Every structure is written in structure tokens, then in C-alpha cells.
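Thread: quick sanity check before group meeting

JM: Hey all, I'm pulling together slides for Thursday and realized we never actually wrote out the predicted structure for the chain we discussed last week. Dropping the sequence here so it's in one place. If anyone has concerns about the input, flag it before I start.
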Amino acid sequence: MSAIERYNVNEEWAHSGMIRAGNLYFVGYCVGNIGKDIEMQVRGAIDHLETRLKTVNLTLENVVQMDCLFRDVWNIPIMEKVIRERFHGKYPVRKSIQTEFAHIGGENGLQFQLDAIAYKED
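JM (edit): ok, ran it. Output follows.
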């Protein structure tokens, strides 16, 4: 196995935005459009994921697993609508979790975050 590579390292948060380990890419803390409605936040998070993947020549088709975090898990149907539009039938394995985000803005702030694993062939 080749060396582990870390991308988007944030020393203040003690956090890596993306890590490559072998053929797998682990992408964390994808968010966007914070403060907007849930659909816009889901779209923003997927945009953020897509932007990170592009830096290593991957696309949403490479995503094999997603963890989707919600302030209100009853918004899953909104996320599913956006996933159908963006993934065009090449859906990853997915789980949805409800959580209280420790984020500025409280219930009017962060509503959705996703983490993902992507696969890249040799």
C-alpha cells in the first residue's frame, strides 16, 4: 500500500478534509449554503463534495458510501430528490443520522452535512 495522503489539512480544527488510503478517498465535513433552506444546504454539501473530488480527478460516480447528517432527519425525502438529480442512478450506499450540530447559528444555521468514501481504480 502506498503512503496515506492528507488534503485540506486545517491545523486549527485538527482536521483533514480528505484522506487517500490506497484506492479509497475519505471525504469529511462537506457543507454548503449554511443558513439557507434544507434543499439548498443539501445541494451545497454535494457541490462541496464534488469540488473536493475534482482535485483528485474523481466525480460523484466514484462515491461508494455517504453518511448524511441532519438536524431534522424528516428531511430525508428532500435529500433523496437531490441525490436522484445529481447521481443519475449511480447511487452510493448511504445512511442518515440526526444530530445537534455544534455550529454557530443553532437551528437556523447548519442543517445538513455529509461525509463520503470514494473509490479510484489504479
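AS: nice. Strands lie at 5-10, 15-21, 24-30, 63-70, 93-98, 112-119. The mean pLDDT is 92.
JM: adding both to the slides.
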